[in-house]
Predict the structure.
Amino acid sequence: MRTRAEWVSLTHRPVPDEQWVTWPEPQRAPTLDPHEHATWFASVQDKLHEAEERYRTLVETLPLATYVGDGAPDSGPSWVSPQIEQITSYSPAEWTSNPELLGEVLHPEDKERVLAEMRGAEECGGSRELEYRMVRRDGTIVWVQDSGVIVIDGDQRHSRGFIIDITARREAELELERQNAQLRQLDNLKDEFVALVSHELRTPLTSIRGYLELMTEDTNLTKEQTRFIETIDRNTQRLQRVVGDLLFVAQVEAGKLMLENGDVDLNTLVAEAVQAAQPSAAAKSIVLTADLGQLPEIRGDRARLAQVLDNFISNAIKFTPGHGSVTLTTSALPGSVQVAICDTGMGIPPDELPLLFQRFFRAERATAGAIPGTGLGLAIAKAIITGHNGWIRVESEDGAGTTFRVTLPG
Ligand SMILES: Nc1ncnc2c1ncn2[C@@H]1O[C@H](COP(=O)(O)OP(=O)(O)OP(=O)(O)O)[C@@H](O)[C@H]1O
Ligand SMILES: [Mg+2]
């Protein structure tokens, strides 16, 4: 049976306009009579032109420029689709006739890198993806993404690929980077300002507390005056704590977390912290208990670890409605020790859990309920525990309670 595919070989590839479609001579003489042959040949030609038209329309309407070449950056493309002119301002003819053009239009800051990468790809073959700038005829800059593949066929190389104009995306990225840099600068300024103000507040606050202490020694004070002085003292202490927290955070931010390590019995620390918090638990009829397991001593900064426990306990009491319970449990794990602080409080909604350890973060319920706090306690706890090579986990059920687990190497 005569099948046309047996004796016709067609090559359909992008080549210069005048040779858009070529086909070699038939390999074998056709067995058709001349009339049949002419009709058949005309129909093949029609189909071929149709296919060519479809292909050309597709290639020329894509929002990118396609190219083919011999794979060497110095020789330029042998064919490039018309969109290249819109992207680079240089016509396909200019690209194919001037092998130096790429080197001439590459942005000076990208030139060396791009040509080196292209030469590297030419040696090894395979695909390559580059982003670089070109300088258009009018001096404007265009950012392009150049995705190509180099095919090595014996000692021949062919490159093909496409170029997309990514100027808008790169400009948006650069704008974002600029804004980020500006934000970082503002953030640093804010940190410096907070550290400075906190520092300035520390001395007068210490002085106020000193004078308050002297005043309480006066035995002639009325009950009302004593109550006033106690209120001033309580608020001054609160301010001192906030100032201390702000300075601590500023130190951590500056990478200056200082830990004074020694041998620490965690159970003693927990018992002391629980003891100290009993009055505030009792004020809300909260049952505050400690369940202490057998623990090895650990290395750590006693005062800083006590500060962490104080914050966890004060949080648990603050965020647990009256008549609830707060339980601290210590346990030894292989190579580590753990303290769990478990409350039956309001819980934390799942979407707020990832934000807990950020500076100044306060859950919506804390602010809505006007529960006092600065939002620094957990950020500080995280910095201290991380400084001990430990970690904190949190589990919470909205409305039912929260458990924080602090694990430290033991
Ligand atoms: N046990 C808890 N139950 C419910 N919410 C909690 C609990 N612990 C912390 N949170 C939430 O996490 C937020 C951050 O806690 P963090 O200790 O950092 O700040 P704070 O207690 O509000 O203020 P500060 O500790 O600086 O005085 C709290 O405001 C609260 O919304
Ligand atoms: Mg707190």
In short: The first strand starts at residue 65 and ends at 69. Residues 311, 314-315, 373, 377 surround magnesium ion (ligand 2) (CB under 6 Å). Residues 183 and 396 are 33 Å apart (CA to CA).
